[in-house]
Write a structure and sequence with these properties.
By secondary structure, this protein is an alpha/beta fold. It has a single domain, classed as Arginase, Chain A. Helix content is 31%, strand content 19%. It contains nine helices and ten strands. Strands 4-1-5-10-9-6-7-8 form an eight-stranded parallel sheet, sandwiched between helices. A two-stranded antiparallel ribbon has the order 2-3. A hairpin with a 4-residue loop joins strand 2 and strand 3. The radius of gyration is 17 Å and the shape is globular. Bound molecules: manganese (II) ion. The site of manganese (II) ion has 6 residues, from loops.
Length: 291
């Protein structure tokens, strides 16, 4: 018998961990584990991403099990494992906790869905995954490719550079802000990019690229990829971003891809029902509805 949690401390539609030994699962079944990382110590502009896991989970209760657009129910087994223990002010320690937690989850054959926290936490997740032959789909207003930011090697602003050090292919989507150094690095290393302007001009090319992607895919969504009209409560808002309908389409295009994990970062809402948390929760909800 399945019990659906009503506690706002767990993502909507997640099952009790006691169901975990439920019979009937095969290795091919997709199971998902939600983990929060309430860490925001490297934030340089709007703080409060430490409240992201709480506000995104709370907002997830606004959605119907039936996904109207997809015409199907959210039936995939989802377990919410709660939050990783973070060490505020200590990236390295927090990163180690994230890495070991994600390793435990993947060892159980469960796909991690991580809620940040600011973007630096994605590095801890990727450290726990096999990055050879992996493509990281990175949705963000910013490239996050600096080698260091304000003297810090590990930061929300350098996270994709650190992930690129791990060796996966990277595709950046929704970009509209970068330093000259980052733009040069992306060009030199052949990181594929679709800016928010590209998406408006040549959506079909972009869809073709996504469709032709083979192998394992990891998805990292910095919610500032949306226009600040739809996601004002993020660490570093940037104008001229995506609409929720476009983000929805991108998430839906992950159907049939071999997704080994997804994270949603940079939600810094402190208000219940705030538009940023609702749009953030929708990313995870839409993704889980694909299975
Ligand atoms: Mn960003």
């Amino acid at each position: 018998m399945l019990f659906y949690t009503e506690s706002p401390l767990k993502f909507a539609f997640s099952r009790e961990a006691t169901d975990f030994t439920e019979q009937g699962f095969t290795d091919k079944d997709h199971r998902f584990g939600v983990v929060g990382v309430p860490f925001d110590s490297t934030t340089t502009y709007k703080p409060c991403a430490r409240f992201g896991p709480r506000s995104v989970r709370e907002a997830s209760y606004n959605f119907e099990r039936y996904n109207f657009v997809l015409g199907k129910n959210l039936d995939a087994p989802v377990y919410d494992f709660g939050d990783v223990e973070v060490a505020h002010g200590n990236f390295k320690k927090t990163c180690k906790h994230v890495e070991s937690t994600i390793s435990e989850i993947t060892d159980m054959g469960i796909t991690p869905v991580t809620i940040g926290g600011e973007h630096s936490i994605s590095y801890g997740v990727l450290k726990a995954l096999e990055t050879e032959d992996l493509t990281v789909i990175h949705l963000d207003a910013h490239m996050d490719l600096r080698n260091a930011y304000m003297g810090e090697k590990y930061s929300h602003a350098t996270v994709m550079r650190r992930i690129s050090d791990l060796g996966p292919e990277i595709i950046q989507i929704g970009i509209r802000s970068a330093s000259q150094e980052e733009a040069a690095f992306a060009e030199e290393t052949g990181i594929e990019q679709y800016t928010s302007y590209d998406l408006a001009k040549r959506w079909d090319d972009f869809e073709r690229t996504l469709r032709s992607l083979e192998g394992s895919v990891y998805v990292t969504v910095d919610l500032d990829v949306l226009d600040p009209a739809y996601a004002p409560s993020v660490g570093t808002p940037a104008p001229c971003g995506l609409k929720p309908q476009e983000l929805e389409k991108i998430i839906f295009s992950l159907k049939n891809k071999e997704v080994v994990g997804l994270d949603l970062v940079e939600v810094s809402s402190t208000q219940i029902g705030d538009v940023t948390s609702v749009n953030g929760a929708k990313v995870i909800y839409d993704f889980l509805c694909l299975y």
